[in-house]
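Backbone geometry:
***
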Amino acid sequence: MPKAMLPVLLFLCCVFMNCTGNKASWAEKLFIKKCLNCHSRSITCLHLGEDKKFWDQTVTRMLRKNNQQVPPEVIETLVDLLSRAQPGAKQICERTGSQS
């Protein structure tokens, strides 16, 4: 296994181990762990209300830019969360607890 895959596998293990069975909750955790590593909530919050095509292109571009290989079903879950979220959605736009 290439060394570059190790961080991706560790990330996915953490996400799957924390999965409560609730797809929305799981996607929120994924957003926090993946998206907030590179930028703040505010940049994502600015684009809430965009359609699924926008978020699919954005998530795919971000993963490619950071050389991340993520299973399609994980991408789909994250895209669903972002495309369904209304502008100002608390789970995306507001910091809670130890989240960034």
